[in-house]
Design a protein that fits this description.
Helices cover 52% and strands 13% of the residues. With 295 residues, the chain is an alpha/beta fold.
Length: 295
């Protein structure tokens, strides 16, 4: 039997409060689960990359709890990085001019399903998409990526599927299909919380995402003093100033030598034999090969 937190307030108008323990985390768990089930994990990872590039994200949904919890979930997922720009979980629709803001932002807007198209067709939103804004439509599950030329190309060329995320995505969708799953309703999730399997799957997914984001920081997290390797020391003031070029140069060399290794391997007889074996196995799988073998 689940442990519960219960409070019986001494007022006639208030019902007894009963919540499961551990208490459900509405943004960290329900918001995250909603993003995964609606937007899908790989598009979610692309969105996090956009935020790391300090590009704006607009979330559209048809309920306040959905939009606000998903907006907060994006902030939580950025760890160990911290969003340092504008953050408005729910922005009134009449203030849509804010999408033209020159500073990066994470903003949520609540709109009825039939009004979502009008927002996407708004000239202000269209212009913003061309200059760095991406839109997550929680109602339709569509992710409209920015059309900013350089950023769009970088995202496309650097996109690599993560097998573990694909596996956990399928697991989450399977768990959510259960008619008793609290992931189907904000109210039910608040009252009952996730099942142990749902909580474990979410924990594992967030672990994979966190590991990926941490890999983008190189060896900075390996030791508390590692950041000094990529900083310029000012002897007069005895202060350090981070130099991005010192951080990027070793990574560029690593990629260059990795590419050189790949090129050398591709020219070996061993690799050529490997490709020929793949060609042979593909031929054996064809209908023609089966016909000849039967004959």
């Amino acid at each position: 039997e689940k442990r519960k937190f219960e409070v019986d307030l001494p007022f006639h108008k208030f019902q007894k409060i009963s919540l499961p323990l551990p208490l459900p985390q509405m943004s960290d768990e329900w918001g995250f689960a909603t993003l995964v089930l609606r937007i899908k994990s790989m598009q979610l990872l692309t969105t996090l990359k956009l935020l790391l590039l300090e590009r704006s994200v607009l979330l559209l949904g048809d309920s306040f709890e959905e939009v606000s919890s998903c907006s907060c979930a994006l902030m939580d997922l950025l760890k160990p990085f911290e969003w340092a720009s504008a953050f408005i979980p729910v922005l009134p629709r009449k203030m849509l001019d804010f999408v033209s803001s020159p500073v990066p932002f994470i903003v949520g807007v609540v709109a009825k399903t039939e009004d979502t198209s009008a927002i996407l067709d708004d000239d202000r939103v269209k212009e913003a998409i061309g200059s760095g804004l991406s839109v997550l439509n929680l109602t339709t599950g569509k992710c409209i990526l920015t059309k900013e030329k350089d950023v769009a190309q970088i995202l496309k060329k650097s996109s690599n599927p993560i097998t573990q995320l694909t596996f956990y995505q399928a697991r989450m969708e399977e768990l959510a299909q259960n008619e008793n799953s609290s992931l189907r309703s904000f109210k039910q999730f608040f009252q009952c919380g996730p099942s142990p399997k749902e909580r474990l799957t979410m924990f594992s997914m967030k672990g994979v995402i966190k590991k990926y984001l941490q890999s983008l920081s190189g060896d900075l997290l390996d030791h508390p003093e590692n950041w000094k390797k990529y900083a310029i020391h000012n002897e007069a003031t005895d202060t350090y100033e981070f130099a991005p070029s010192k951080f990027v140069e070793p990574l560029r060399e690593q990629i260059m030598f990795q590419l050189k290794l790949q090129e050398m391997i591709a020219h070996t007889q061993l690799f050529v034999g490997f490709v020929e074996e793949l060609q042979t196995s593909k031929l054996l799988e064809s209908n023609s090969a089966l016909f000849i073998a039967d004959w």
